[in-house]
Write a structure and sequence with these properties.
4-stranded antiparallel sheet, mainly beta
């Protein structure tokens, strides 16, 4: 099935995993009391294919062992799938003291964004609202965070369906902060990307709604949902493969559909069209849909840019066996025309009788479904200032186990560090990045209906002088 956007006029203006190391430590809970939150049952928002799994009991890495994981179809993975796990004994890292500090309670938070010109935070709720978390900082540096106002800055709940893995899934702002972009599933189950202008009262102007993109969805899972502005100023949109099990539409490798892709569009076109195609897109002259930036993804949850290097990071939820992360260097094109392999490949393993495409870009890192892990939650490269040891480290987690990890890509291989963080019985839904580069974690759980938690990653004590 070929899926094309509905065009509406403006209403207004290569991998080496032979050296993967872990910090061996117990995972400790955040000091704060457990804040119970609901979310989707049976991993419905993120996992797409995860079964009922038991969370890891102690959060520890394996003890100096090499293991070869069994593929989902019973075949042994190739030699490249062997992962060596060893202790990581760097005393500097073992002394890392960090915690997750709750700053707000919301209803099913799904996405977090900063906005140019303000130090405030913006959080999307799955039902279709965007909330403002207001911050003030005194001349002496004392910070105050207000509880989210009862009135959201955007409320489109009447337009949003939360069936399956649907809902308001993505949120970002234009470079100057004047436009807000949201990615959601509408009442028909289609993926919709809208633009809103900000009014003088600090809220989205509902009358300014402009539909940029609409993608029909054959099923109610694998929606992707991330929207991000790249350093080039263009809007990047992550789409899942359309759902079902095993990519029944074969969308991942089909360049005639926008499903199973990362798209790149210019939301500020000339004329009355809702968007234009940037000249550098790989299929602008044919061979595929011109919106496509890269392809071969299953359910990317999330995509982010390193605010310092511009590198694109993609966390893609796997089918039965593996969760994967791919870094696409800005210096090497930022993933232009990349084929991440799905559904010929799951991570670096042939899937369902497939084989690696000639242009397959293998993941930078992947991990198996073990110790309660089932569905990756992508994060950000840390570029904040309050936790110096994390500078340049990509943080991510797992929806089911609640663990948080730090990943570094080094010339000798992938360095994976288990951080002394976990969200306990909650599900790790998403990460966020503040205007100053500090990072946030969004969680939900199967507890009291209507609550969700936004945490900020903070040091528990002032770090010692590393010199």
């Amino acid at each position: 099935m070929v899926t094309k956007p509905v065009v509406l006029k403006r209403s207004r203006l290569s991998r080496d995993l032979s050296d993967i190391s872990f910090v061996e430590r117990d995972v400790m809970k955040a000091k704060s009391a457990r804040l119970l939150v609901p979310l989707l049952t049976s991993c419905s928002l993120l996992a797409g294919a995860c079964a009922a799994l038991t969370p890891a009991t102690d959060g520890r890495a394996s003890d100096n062992t090499s293991t070869t994981e069994q593929a989902a179809d019973g075949e042994q993975p190739d030699e490249g799938q062997t992962t060596t796990t060893v202790d990581f004994a760097d005393p500097l890292w073992q002394s890392l003291k960090i915690e997750l500090v709750p700053i707000a309670q919301l209803e099913e938070p799904t996405a977090f964004s900063a906005r140019s010109g303000t130090i405030n935070y913006y959080v999307a709720e799955r039902a279709g609202r965007v909330r403002l978390i207001e911050r003030t900082v005194s001349p002496k540096g004392k910070e105050r965070i207000k509880a989210p106002a009862s009135t959201p800055i955007l409320d489109i709940t009447e337009m949003v369906s939360t069936s399956g893995e649907g809902g308001l899934l993505g949120l970002t702002f234009s470079t100057d902060g004047r436009q807000m972009y949201v990615n959601y599933t509408d009442l028909s189950g289609d993926t919709v990307v809208d633009e809103y202008m900000f009014s003088r009262n600090g809220r989205a102007d509902l009358d300014s709604r402009r539909e940029l993109l609409r993608i029909p969805q054959p099923a109610n899972n694998h929606n992707g949902g991330a929207v991000k502005i790249g350093e080039d100023g263009f809007l990047y949109i992550a789409t899942g493969d359309g759902g079902g099990s095993g990519d029944p539409e074969q969308a991942g490798q089909d360049l005639s559909t926008l499903l199973g892709k990362v798209l790149r569009i210019d939301p500020f076109p000339d004329g009355d069209s809702p968007y234009s195609i940037p000249d550098g897109n790989p299929f602008v002259d044919g061979g595929g849909e011109p919106e496509i930036w890269l392809y071969g993804v299953r359910n990317p949850w999330r995509i982010t840019f390193d605010r310092q290097s511009g590198d694109l990071w993609i966390a893609d939820v796997g089918q039965n066996a593996f969760e994967e992360i791919t870094m696409l260097s800005s210096a090497s094109g930022g993933g232009r025309g990349a084929n991440l392999g799905w559904s010929q490949m799951e991570a670096a393993t042939p899937f369902n009788g497939g084989s690696a495409p000639d242009n397959h870009v293998e993941p930078s890192h992947f991990y198996p479904h073990e110790e309660g892990r089932c569905s990756i939650t992508g994060g950000y490269v840390y570029r904040g200032e309050i936790i110096a040891l994390l500078n340049g480290v990509y943080l991510f987690g797992d929806y089911c186990s609640g663990e948080v990890w730090g990943l570094e890509l080094q010339p000798e291989g992938v360095l994976l560090r288990r951080l002394p963080l976990a969200v306990g019985k909650e599900q790790l839904v998403s990460f966020g990045e503040g205007p100053d580069g500090e990072l946030f974690v969004l969680t939900s759980s199967d507890g009291e209906e209507g609550l969700g938690t936004v945490y900020r990653l903070e040091p528990t004590e002032v770090e010692a002088d590393e010199s």
